User: Fold this.
Amino acid sequence: MKFFADTADIDAIRDLEATGLLDGVTTNPSIIHKSGRKFTEVIAEICKIVDGPVSAEVVALDHATMMKEAEVLRKIADNVCIKVPLTIDGLKTCKALSSEGTQVNVTLCFSANQALLAAKAGATFISPFVGRHDDNGFDGMQLIDDIRLIYDNYQFDTEILVASVRHPVHVLEAAKIGADVMTAPPSVIHSLFNHVLTDKGLAAFAADWEKTGQSIL
Ligand code: G3P
Assistant:
């Protein structure tokens, strides 16, 4: 499973990149707003830190303007992945860009039928929002399971990029289903490393090692 960081926080991205476990970055207009940075500049900076795909979202609602925005964004760096909304215009743009070899991440997906359309449009990634699905009384992980079944039925190459991830259980369930990618805020990614018994065990090892009076170096 690929791990993407869902943020435009440069320090947090550098920190995760240093673990060697970061496979890409996703952003959206809300994340860019939160960063307080100029959109194209922060995307360029992120693209220099990570080698993997960096999702940069168009903000237009019509196909023609989306294409113009995509032209600006994809010139930033080779690893820019254009993010488009799951609308008719967004999928028209997805079809056009993917046919030119540009990576496209189709976002704001909330149904398996929407994911089916995105795959037919040649999406590189589909981003079902599991957290927001759960927030509204739907079953976010069932959506992922349905998409996985449909994509496997037709051997679609589109990768399931689980988004709106709120906690480690979302990551666990997505991995058990066989999603290709998960994107999460740095805080959620960091929480994946933690377990109280690991901490306790390490403390006990350290205490017993101390008693040996030895040093490895
Ligand atoms: O990539 C989509 C993600 O940023 C949305 O997360 O928590 O706002 O639903 P959230």
Notes: The longest helix spans residues 196-212. Residues 6, 26, 28, 31, 127, 129, 131-132, 163-164, 183 surround SN-glycerol-3-phosphate (CB under 6 Å). The chain has a mean pLDDT of 98. The two ends are 36 Å apart (CA to CA).
